[in-house]
Amino acid sequence: MQTQSNRPRTRAYSLSLDSLRHRRKGTFRVVEVAACHSTHTSAAKAQSGLVYMWGQCRGQSVVLPHVTHFSCVDDVFACFSTPAVMWRLLSVEHEEFLTVTESLKREFDSPETSDLKFRVDGKFIYVHKAVLKIRCEHFRTMFQSYWNEDEKEVIDVDQFSYPVYRAFLEYLYTDNIDLPPEDAIGLLDLATSYCENRLKKLCQHLIKRGITVENAFSLLSAAVRYDAEDLEEFCFKFCINHLTEVTQTTAFWQIDGSLLKEFIAKASKYGAFKN
């Protein structure tokens, strides 16, 4: 789309190279030269990349070409002319462009381009074998020629829920996860099963951000179950700092007996039960 400035019209002038002399001895080769009749300002760009200006500059007259700090001739007219003008038409073009990451994200769960689909809880998730093999060691092994899964077009999954498995597959395309903390526990289980250490860390971070008095003991139990030591320590300290509130929740009374004993023993070492 071509748009023309509402400023006074401008035109470019061809000037002889002999008229554009540096203040020091010698000449410079010009690759672009422009002038605006309404502001009496001129500018030129040398082959070296330096930009010069002369003529009217904010009410003052510059007789000889003067080196500026600009890298573009347009900046001379924008900053030194009164009023500020453009010496040529402004071209504004909107170019549709997707990065590799954006393209992959767009193609996730796309029936048009997929060559494989997972069926979870009766729902389909459309994916691409190549992406899964590149991003996940579990799938790289699964899709070896001697495995039956390599020839299947539909793979049934019953170990994990639909939200959890979809979030996992989407993570392989986007490197991000977006789940509530309660579902992130299931994703943490999946990450542990598939030996996805980075995903495991992301899940722990997500769970930490979503911990509350109501779910603290549930998250602590999950951290112990999936051997997430950093998350376990975080949840434990949260429970200690909110001991009165968390012990009155439903999750506290549903906690495993052995874990409860371990929690009480550890909490006593922290002085949680001192009078």
TrEMBL record:
Q: Could you identify this protein by its name?
A: RCC1 and BTB domain-containing protein 1 isoform X2
What Gene3D superfamilies is this protein classified in? Potassium Channel Kv1.1, Chain A
InterPro entries noted in UniProt: BTB-POZ/Galectin-3-binding, BTB/POZ_dom, SKP1/BTB/POZ_sf
| Listed Pfam families | BTB
Query: Could you list the residue ranges forming a coiled coil in this record?
Result: none
According to the entry, every stretch annotated as the BTB domain falls at: 114-181
Q: Which domain of life is it from?
A: Eukaryota
TM ranges are none
